[in-house]
Specification:
NADP, 4Fe4S_Fe_S_CS, Alpha-Beta Plaits, binds iron/sulfur cluster, alpha+beta, three-stranded antiparallel beta sheet, 4 iron, 4 sulfur cluster binding, two-stranded parallel ribbon, iron ion binding, 31% helix, 7 strands, 205 residues, elongated
Length: 205
């Protein structure tokens, strides 16, 4: 008799636990049912990359002094700087420059250390190609102005989650000038600039 009661008690306990776990799982499901979809209908819609996104590198041939700093700071010595010494002008003459984006890890070191700022990271991320050698960009390809999601008339740009207004979870149908949650880098810089005279005005000592 005692054994039967124990079995009934265990059965009731396990049933209660099973019901609890099913309830927990369904609560997650129902929670998602009440949320709005955040699907991006690529390629008709595209997310605007974040401000410091490290996409395809842009290069300005006329500003390059062939110093090869970019090669030395690159973890894989990737940029190819083809130059020769011009004896008449007594300075380097740049012939070609290339970066292979099939190998580049987009770390941004070359951009960071270039003394003439002729390299810059862009927000271009669509580099897919059928032939890997096509990813080896020469100075002409590197000099092409970057593609911008916001300037393509065929594409609806969507704000990334980080830039949505506070409390907003869906990037569709936002008003054009809708405020984003965080401050823009230029706003932060303005604040720093505004704070500067106060610091300078502080008495010495
Ligand atoms: S660091 Fe800049 S200036 Fe020097 S070779 Fe590289 S791209 Fe040219
Ligand atoms: S982004 Fe990094 S890996 Fe790519 S070329 Fe520049 S330094 Fe090299």
């Amino acid at each position: 008799m005692f054994k039967v009661l124990k079995q009934v008690q265990d059965y009731a306990k396990e049933s209660w636990q099973a019901a609890k776990y099913i309830g927990q799982g369904l609560s997650v499901t129902f929670d998602h049912m009440s949320r709005r979809p955040v699907t991006v209908q690529y390629p008709y819609e595209k997310l605007v990359p974040s401000e410091r996104y490290r996409g395809r590198i842009h290069y300005e041939f006329d500003k390059c002094i062939a110093c090869e700093v970019c090669v030395r700071v690159c973890p894989i010595n990737l940029p190819v700087v083809d130059w020769e010494f011009d004896k008449k002008a007594k300075k380097k003459k740049l012939n070609h420059y290339s970066i292979d984006f099939g190998v580049c890890i987009f770390c941004g070191n070359c951009v960071e250390y270039c003394p003439t700022n002729c390299l810059s990271m862009t927000e271009e991320y669509e580099l897919a190609s059928y032939e890997r050698h096509e990813l080896n960009y020469d100075n002409v390809a590197l000099g092409r102005l970057p593609y911008k999601v916001t300037q393509d008339p065929m594409v609806t740009p969507l704000k990334e989650f980080a830039y949505l207004p506070k409390g907003e979870v869906e990037p569709h149908g936002l008003a054009k000038g809708a405020q984003r949650a965080g401050k823009r880098p230029e706003e932060i810089l303005e604040e720093i600039e505004a704070a500067k005279p106060k610091e300078e005005a502080k008495p010495e000592g």
